[in-house]
Write a structure and sequence with these properties.
Nucleotidyltransferase, domain 5, kinase, five-stranded mixed sheet, ATPase_NBD, carbohydrate metabolism, ATP-binding, binds ligand AH0, binds adenosine-5'-triphosphate, 360 residues, three-stranded mixed sheet, alpha/beta, single chain, 19% strand
Length: 360
């Protein structure tokens, strides 16, 4: 999995039949080098003009070859390091890199060549998980809710439970026994990362150090939350750059105040989604890179009280690897013809299978 944060490739093995999770296997991570990340950032820019999901103008062809190669290297290194034989692997789930997500126009573009990956690895690969849902009128995201529900069944917390993923964009799954309800909540880490890069050159506000020292501009947050996205009912989804630093109107702030304000925006937009869920969650489990930011976690606890807020790691899951695990799970569901998207998670007209299978 390579998500909207453009930080690297997460790899994870799980044992599953696409319904139950029998065991979590090892995990690993391949970070992108600065020049690789710059290529992907350019790919996002060049993707803005796309009107077809197969066109590869600008650096998109180069970026696609890179994404395929980076995932192949990541899987090869993982299998070698863990001593996992090829024949022990049923399938590899390959999300690819989202470069454009405009479901309203019937367009979601993930670059990455699944057939080439299958050939190079000598393994069956499931890829292109979002297209069928978008073609049917769904949002094509989020896809992790069915995995979040399987995970939530393994813990004892008061229901409803919310599983919150804070990646570049943040998304939530609401679980209360029946079908999951889900949506993107708003910006996750992307705005914080972009602000840190622009003001200090650093790729992130590590451990929320800057945010912890800053003052939150609540007026700015109130202004951003007037955006119509926040009043839309679930399901709904975002492109990484729907809320971009260039267009959110952040006033001139110190590094600490800017980091604090953008972190609080993420927390406030999560709190804002509560009214859009069938019932307020009693227990929040936070995954994704945002779970590793203690300042953001504190802001979430404050804004979601009296509900409890814990990290995925605290309940025995992996904040870092949960999305990679989710795509392993979705790959097995694709192989078994099981649905991966639902009316209440993406707005699909009915429960739908998705993903394409490539054999070596
Ligand atoms: N120690 C840390 N302190 C603060 N922030 C962190 C830390 N570790 C990771 N992050 C944040 O998490 C981000 C990576 O998150 P994650 O890997 O969940 O994103 P992703 O998978 O790319 O996103 P998405 O869920 O949108 O697909 C980093 O870009 C950074 O902003
Ligand atoms: C189009 C796209 O790639 N969306 C990502 C993004 O990052 C988080 C959020 O926005 C979520 O909707 C989705 O990723 C996860 C893996 C998902 O589909 O569940």
């Amino acid at each position: 999995m390579s998500g909207t944060s453009l930080d690297g490739v997460d790899v994870a093995a799980i044992e599953t039949d696409g319904e139950r999770i029998m065991a979590f296997g090892p995990t690993s991570y391949r970070a992108y080098a600065d020049n690789e990340r710059a290529l992907l950032r350019q790919a996002l820019m060049d993707a803005r003009a796309l009107t077809s999901r197969t066109a590869r103008p600008g650096v998109l062809a180069e970026a696609e070859a890179f994404i395929t190669r980076a995932h192949a290297e990541a899987v090869e290194a993982f299998l070698d390091a863990e001593g996992i034989a090829r024949k022990a692997v049923t399938i590899v789930g390959f999300h690819g890199q989202t470069v454009l997500h405009r479901p309203g126009d019937g367009l979601t573009v993930q670059i990455g060549d699944g057939a080439a990956l299958a050939k190079r690895l000598g393994l069956t690969v499931a890829y292109d998980f979002r297209a069928a849902d978008v073609a049917a009128g769904g949002q094509g995201a989020p896809l992790v809710p069915i995995f979040h529900r399987a995970l939530a069944r393994s813990i004892e917390r008061p229901h409803p439970i919310a599983v919150l993923n804070i990646g570049g964009v943040a998304n939530v799954t609401w679980v209360d026994g029946g079908d999951p309800v889900a949506c993107d909540t708003g910006p996750g880490n992307a705005l914080i990362d972009d602000f840190m890069r622009a003001t200090t050159g650093a790729p992130l506000d590590r451990d929320g150090d800057q945010a912890a020292r800053g003052r939150v501009d609540e007026d700015f947050i109130a202004r951003v939350l007037k955006h119509p996205f926040f009043d839309q009912p679930c399901p709904k989804s975002l492109d990484r750059n729907d809320f971009a630093l260039a267009n959110v109107g952040l006033p001139e702030l110190s590094v600490a105040d800017g980091a604090a304000t953008l972190s609080a925006l993420t927390a406030a937009s999560v709190a804002r989604v509560v009214a859009r869920l069938p019932q307020a969650p009693k227990a929040w489990i936070v995954a994704g890179g945002g779970a590793r930011n203690p300042t953001l976690m504190k802001m979430l606890s404050q804004r979601l009280a009296p509900a409890t807020v814990e990290t995925a790691d605290a309940v025995g899951w992996s904040s870092q690897s949960i999305e990679a695990q989710a795509f392993a799970y979705l790959a097995m569901r694709t192989l078994g013809g099981l649905p991966i998207t639902f009316p209440q998670t993406t707005g699909a007209p009915q429960a739908m299978s998705g993903g394409v299978i490539a054999t070596p």
